[in-house]
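TASK: fixed-backbone design
INPUT:
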């Protein structure tokens, strides 16, 4: 008799954003005419930039002609896109070669898939609150998780532990859900810790495009020593509106080896076995993001989301409300008012103001007592939500 993966028994019943959508659907069934203000899941609301749309159309036309048609794409990414992404890093002073770039169908897929590189007995250190997929992917693999709590006291930016060591270390900066961003010194302490212990950092850079403070690092590879201990996973979802289009990229430096095995070569072996590459059409659209026109257009969209974040933080700017994020990051992370926990506050906002947010408890124990707002919602709804929040908090 086949034995299923019993690690699934250790997962919560269902995934955070699935739970929320179930609750919202139930609410809408009872209140069918309500217009809900969606500041929950970090899904973009603005359409793809013109430069991307034009490239996508052209790529579709390529697929209609014998001499420009593409079948299977190279498993690790089209050379034109690997080169474009490497050039983007190089233009920011981070030296990356084309074959250190792996094109993927999105960061969330890759954050789970990348675990194939590590033995099941390796431990994973996860700073909490955390994006729940880090935890779930490691539970599914049966890995031991070391939960590193973060909180108000350390600005949700924990330092490496004094005693514990870990094999795989997740760092998300700008952080989902707290919006906190590690500075260079803080990241250096993690890089040194990883190199000291022979760990590998999985650096989730999905929100790097929101950094405006010139002193903050966009990439872990801006930190000395990171090429010997880190993998960076990034995505165009939040940078360029690709949540429904799907494209990400992973940087694995050639220098990164563990136990005599080179992780870049291992990932080539993995991808050539497990994927047939990302669609030609989508990769052409992705390359357009890195053109001058594409960069100008994505900045315009990101500025709309930044303005949303400002509108939300203005509504929370009251002595009795504690919050962080919303600057250099698309998420605003607030402490729930006394008398609520994070799920009861979710219910309260839904029923009293028609606002959907994300309860902090969904990001782990340390998230209890907090609540997350996403700035990716449409601007009119965000402005309306801010007005309603102001009213609620003045009661
Ligand atoms: C979030 O809301 O945390 C993210 O949008 C989820 C994701 O990127 O998968």
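OUTPUT:
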């Amino acid at each position: 008799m086949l034995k299923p993966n019993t690690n699934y028994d250790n997962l919560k019943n269902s995934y955070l954003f699935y739970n929320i959508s179930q609750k919202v659907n139930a609410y809408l069934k009872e209140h069918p005419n309500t217009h809900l203000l969606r500041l929950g899941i970090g899904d973009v609301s603005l359409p793809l930039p013109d430069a991307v749309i034009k490239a996508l159309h052209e790529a579709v036309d390529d697929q209609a002609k014998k001499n420009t048609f593409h079948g299977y794409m190279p498993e690790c990414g089209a050379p034109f896109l690997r080169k474009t992404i490497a050039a983007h890093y190089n233009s920011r002073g981070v030296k990356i070669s084309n074959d250190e770039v792996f094109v993927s169908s999105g960061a969330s897929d890759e954050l789970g898939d990348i675990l194939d590189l590590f033995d099941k007995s390796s431990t994973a250190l996860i700073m909490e609150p955390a994006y729940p997929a880090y935890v779930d992917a490691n539970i599914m693999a049966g890995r031991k998780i070391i939960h590193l709590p973060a909180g108000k006291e350390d600005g949700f930016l924990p330092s490496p532990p004094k005693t514990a060591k870990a094999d795989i270390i997740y760092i998300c900066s700008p952080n989902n859900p707290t919006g906190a961003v590690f500075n260079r010194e803080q990241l250096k302490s993690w890089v040194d810790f990883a190199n000291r212990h022979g760990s590998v950092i999985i650096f989730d850079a999905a929100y790097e495009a929101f950094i405006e403070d010139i002193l903050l690092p966009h990439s872990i590879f801006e930190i000395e020593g990171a090429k010997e201990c880190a993998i960076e996973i990034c995505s165009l979802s939040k940078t360029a509106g690709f949540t429904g289009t799907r494209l990400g990229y992973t940087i694995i430096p050639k220098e990164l080896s563990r136990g005599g095995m080179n992780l870049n070569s291992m990932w080539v072996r993995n991808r050539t076995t497990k994927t047939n590459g990302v669609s030609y059409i989508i990769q052409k659209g992705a390359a357009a993001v890195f053109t001058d026109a594409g960069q100008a257009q994505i900045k315009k969209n990101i500025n709309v989301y930044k303005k949303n974040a400002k509108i939300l933080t203005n509504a929370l700017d009251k002595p009795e409300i504690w919050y962080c994020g919303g600057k250099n990051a698309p998420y605003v992370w607030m402490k729930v008012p006394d008398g609520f926990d994070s799920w009861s506050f979710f219910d309260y906002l839904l029923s009293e103001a028609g606002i959907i947010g994300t309860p902090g408890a969904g990001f782990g124990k340390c998230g209890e007592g907090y609540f997350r707002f996403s700035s990716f919602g449409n601007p009119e709804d965000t402005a309306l939500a801010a007005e309603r929040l102001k009213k609620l908090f003045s009661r």
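COMMENT: The chain has a mean pLDDT of 96.
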